[in-house]
């Protein structure tokens, strides 16, 4: 074989194998080509990986796995299926059952030692699973990359495959030309290098060499009448009892094998660990490094398998094999558990039943919808019953695309009561981020407002669609909506024309009453998937169990002294639904909660006055707008705000000067800015008094470690915090410590920390690698008084020759310059020799981006120097890019890329 990039000359091999496939005449022997790294091993192999390619690739697909296996002591054999790659062209049409037998024959001719792990992609996934199903005596684990094992007979196969099967296209596209090959190779992200693309084409030069490609396409069981459908169904059902460790490495941008197929596989192999490589496509092994994660997983999976055979979570998000044992993160499953809705049910049955529970404010300053505790309980119970009748069950995923307020409150508690898993992916993720979140979680139901349903139709989001309001018949058909919440409440469950969901619903009389009883819920079952903001990369799904959500409620109540009967204004989406769980009367002000800066001072005052609220939740962006609009407050509005005793603001740092200004309109309020994240909220608490004291200590220099960051206070009730020190390269690999003045990655441990990341096994493994502590990705340090200071994010570290630089302290110094409103400090150039660059918003805003005026640049350099940084350049922009959800977190990655372009002499474009 000619030399190919990435292929060691010792790997290629040929073997004559007697065939027992039904398609071959008795006594047939077929010649197989395969790649084998055995010659590179220096000792007995730790085990054998049997890699099976799909259509239209060949064993070359697995070259990275062969190379990595040789380094780690694993034998890797990558076969070319018959009629494919460099194996024999038998001249016979081989169906799925034949190919499973082919692999059996090949393995039977080999001397395999140690654990045997099958690895499959595309059609190779199906064949390898068929082999694993038959050879349970031999196979110890299975690994899958983009493939499918079941095709819903009520749904069409993916459009590209329908096209390839069309009689006018099939032969031309798969055999007569290289079109099918070319389209497959074009799916790579980034594009395949020219020499790699040529290597993939090598075995398929000429129509005669491509007959196997055409046959593979023709053998797709597109319907139950297809000859290979029984074989596929047998494998699909058989693997449900395949009790071996499983790993799925997936490219979610695959136009063929979407997350719908991954979801199906996860249901059949619930013990599987899953990692979705965001942005990767069909050729996931070309798009991302899969060899490293694969062998990392093997190191733990086989040890775990030997110790226990317990399954993972129901949705295929098993805890990382070999992950260190957690401390408090391993929640005590014997501890008493109080369901999230306990206060709701208690108050609905007690003397406060007719008091206001939840309300929404209108633009006119009046309540437009409200429910008492009794009515809220009745609404939740009724809707839970109705949703159960249309098929919502324990474990069902339901995407709630409804703005915070009364309607969403009822929906959320109804779903939690059933035991369904709620998916909260808000508009703050942006259109692309929201689409990825919905597709990645594959909801069975999507309940939303018209705008969300329109997006679901346009972007083909999965899930049976339920509208909030009853829609006109034409619009309902257009959007594929099968029912509305109003209809469900009335007991109407007629599906929309063309809907493929179940037409029949259970008889109410035969419903299991325990299904709707929160006291019999499994506390450690999944309850919710929340999404991070995506401000430092793709938004991540964060899985919470019922127990962990309840722990969050308890932490908030204990830390801030919130008690049942208090009045709460929820102007911050993450807290908008905690009111009933806390037993507080909660009200949503007139604002777009997904755009925090739309909350005005008068809207806040109206909401406070409506329920005599004592507590306010609002984001930093909302606080800025409240101050900016305080001039519109009436005397009555100011009087109402004077009654607020607690203000909580989270999501981004809040400058002390802003909090001090707020005292002018909230004179009686204790102002708190808790630190936390989607994975754990809250983690610390700090009030204005502590912030001012910390800043004074930093200025005086009389407390070790005070300064160089944002003081976020001390750990909340039940939480522990430590840091893993940074090395000179900026990697957090030091032993955890609480020593004052030591900068490192912040690690947290608390009962309300997330259970895991959704289908991000690699990310979960990394985040929990230190004794089970959650590694936050934030950088910070303690001071001598035990207060935590946050200095930035790991991805935003700057690495000049002088040593690692964290950005927040320098940015604070820059923002103290009179002409600077907001600052971002980024690194430009190679790691270890980066130039330190400041990009600032000016006050007033500059008209055009570019180099800072000399006077401003001089002042900025002086300020940065006082914080320990030497600036190479100072750039100005009209506005820095911030995340949609908080309107506050700067996208430093985008800023760094823009600054690099400017300093390279490129055109100065808009940031």
Structure description:
The chain has 911 residues and is of the alpha/beta class. It is built from 30 helices and 34 strands. The strands form 5 sheets. An 8-stranded mixed sheet has the order 1-2-4-3-5-6-7-8, with helices on both faces. Strands 15-14-13-11-12-16-17-28 form an 8-stranded mixed sheet, sandwiched between helices. A 7-stranded mixed sheet has the order 10-9-19-18-20-21-22. Helix 1 (63-72) crosses helix 12 and helix 22 (601-611) crosses helix 24 (635-641). The longest helix has 17 residues, at 291-307. The protein is globular and about 95 Å long. The two termini are 51 Å apart. 54% of the residues are buried. Mean pLDDT is 91; it is low at 309-314, 318-329 and 495-516.
Beta-strand proportion = 15-25%
Radius of gyration, whole Å: 30 Å
Structural class: alpha/beta
Give me the oligomer status.
Answer: single chain
The biggest sheet, with number of strands, parallel, antiparallel or mixed sense and barrel status, is: 8 strands, mixed
Residues in helix, %:
25-40%
Number of helices: 30
Strand order of the largest sheet: 1-2-4-3-5-6-7-8
The 3D shape can be described as globular
Low-confidence stretches: 309-314, 318-329, 495-516
Question: Care to count the β-strands?
Answer: 34
How many angstroms does the end-to-end distance come to? Answer: 51 Å
Overall mean pLDDT stands at: 91
């Amino acid at each position: 074989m000619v030399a190919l990039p990435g292929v060691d000359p010792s790997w290629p091999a040929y073997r004559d194998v007697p065939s027992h496939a039904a398609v071959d005449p008795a006594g047939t022997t077929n010649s197989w080509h395969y790649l084998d790294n055995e010659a590179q091993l220096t000792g007995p192999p730790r085990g054998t990986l049997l890699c099976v390619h799909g259509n239209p690739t060949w064993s070359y697909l697995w070259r990275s796995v062969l190379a990595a296996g040789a380094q780690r002591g694993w034998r890797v054999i990558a076969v070319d299926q018959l009629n494919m790659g460099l194996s024999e062209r038998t001249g016979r049409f081989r169906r799925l059952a034949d190919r499973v037998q082919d692999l059996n024959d090949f393995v039977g001719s080999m001397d395999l030692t140690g654990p045997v792990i099958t690895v499959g992609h595309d059609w190779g996934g199906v064949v390898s699973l068929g082999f694993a199903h038959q050879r349970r005596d031999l196979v110890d684990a299975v690994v899958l990359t983009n493939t499918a094992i079941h095709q819903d007979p009520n749904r069409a196969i993916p459009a590209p495959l329908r096209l390839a099967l069309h009689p006018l296209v099939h032969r031309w596209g798969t055999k007569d030309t290289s079109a099918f090959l070319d389209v497959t190779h074009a799916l790579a992200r980034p594009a395949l290098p020219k020499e790699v693309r040529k290597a993939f084409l090598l075995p398929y030069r000429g129509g005669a060499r491509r007959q196997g490609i055409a046959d593979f396409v023709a053998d797709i069981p597109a319907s139950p009448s297809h000859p290979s459908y029984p074989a596929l169904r047998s494998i699909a059902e058989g693997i449900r009892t395949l009790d071996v460790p499983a790993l799925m490495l997936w490219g979610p941008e695959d136009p063929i094998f979407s997350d719908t197929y991954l979801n199906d596989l996860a249901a059949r192999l619930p013990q599987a660990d899953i990692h979705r490589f965001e942005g990767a496509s069909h050729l996931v092994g070309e798009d991302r490094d899969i060899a490293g994660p694969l062998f990392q997983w093997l190191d733990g999976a086989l040890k775990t398998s030997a110790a226990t055979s317990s399954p993972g979570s129901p949705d295929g998000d098993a805890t990382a094999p070999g992950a260190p044992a957690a401390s408090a993160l391993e929640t005590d499953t014997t501890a008493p558990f109080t369901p999230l809705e306990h206060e709701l049910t208690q108050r609905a049955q007690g003397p406060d039943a007719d008091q206001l529970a939840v309300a929404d404010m209108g633009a006119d300053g009046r309540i437009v919808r409200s429910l008492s505790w009794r009515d809220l309980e009745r609404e939740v119970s009724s809707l839970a019953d109705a949703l159960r009748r249309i098929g919502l069950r324990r474990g069902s995923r339901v995407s709630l695309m409804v703005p915070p307020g009364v309607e969403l409150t009822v929906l959320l508690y109804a779903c939690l009561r059933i035991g369904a898993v709620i998916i909260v992916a808000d508009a703050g993720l942006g259109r692309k981020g929201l689409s990825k979140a919905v597709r990645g979680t594959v909801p069975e139901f999507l309940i939303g407002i018209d705008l969300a349903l329109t997006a679901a139709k346009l972007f083909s989001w999965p899930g049976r669609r339920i509208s909030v309001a009853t829609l006109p018949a034409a619009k309902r058909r257009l959007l594929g909506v099968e029912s509305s919440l109003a209809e469900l409440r009335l007991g109407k469950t007629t599906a929309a024309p063309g809907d493929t969901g179940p037409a029949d619903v259970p008889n109410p009389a035969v419903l299991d009453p325990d299904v709707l009883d929160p006291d019999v819920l499994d506390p450690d079952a999944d309850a919710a998937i929340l999404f991070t903001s995506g401000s430092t990369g793709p938004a991540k799904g964060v899985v919470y169990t019922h127990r962990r959500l309840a722990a969050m409620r308890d932490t908030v109540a204990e830390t801030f002294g919130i008690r049942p009967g208090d009045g709460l204004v929820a102007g911050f989406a993450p807290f908008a639904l905690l009111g009933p769980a806390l037993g507080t009367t909660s009200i949503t002000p007139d604002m777009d909660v997904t755009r925090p800066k739309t909350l005005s001072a008068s809207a806040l005052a109206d909401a406070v006055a409506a329920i005599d609220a004592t507590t306010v939740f609002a984001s930093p962006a909302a606080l800025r707008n409240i101050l900016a609009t305080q001039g519109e407050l009436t005397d009555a509005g100011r009087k109402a705000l004077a009654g607020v005793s607690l203000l909580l603001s989270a999501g981004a740092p809040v400058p002390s000067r802003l909090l001090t200004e707020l005292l002018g309109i909230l004179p009686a309020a204790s102002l708190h800015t808790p630190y936390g994240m989607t994975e754990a909220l809250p983690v610390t608490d700090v009030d204005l008094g502590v912030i001012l004291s910390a800043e004074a200590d930093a200025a005086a220099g009389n407390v070790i470690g005070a300064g160089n960051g944002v003081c976020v206070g001390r750990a909340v009730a039940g939480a522990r915090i430590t840091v893993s020190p940074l090395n000179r390269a900026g990697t957090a690999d030091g032993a955890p410590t609480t020593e004052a003045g030591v900068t490192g990655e912040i690690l947290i441990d608390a009962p309300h920390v997330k259970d895991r990341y959704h289908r991000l096994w690699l990310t979960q493994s990394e985040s929990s690698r230190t004794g089970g502590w959650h590694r936050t990705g934030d950088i910070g340090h303690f001071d001598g008084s035990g207060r935590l200071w946050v200095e930035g994010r790991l991805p935003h570290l700057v690495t000049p020759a002088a040593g690692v630089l964290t950005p927040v302290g320098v940015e604070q110094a820059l923002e103290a310059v009179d002409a600077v409103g907001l600052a971002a400090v980024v690194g430009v150039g190679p790691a270890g020799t980066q130039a330190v660059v400041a990009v600032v918003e000016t006050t007033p805003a500059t008209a055009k981006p570019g180099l800072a005026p000399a006077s401003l640049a001089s002042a900025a350099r002086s300020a940065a120097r006082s914080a320990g940084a030497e600036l190479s350049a100072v750039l100005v922009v009209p506005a820095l890019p911030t995340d949609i959800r908080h309107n506050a977190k700067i996208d430093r990655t985008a800023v760094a890329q823009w600054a690099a372009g400017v300093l390279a002499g490129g055109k100065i474009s808009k940031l």
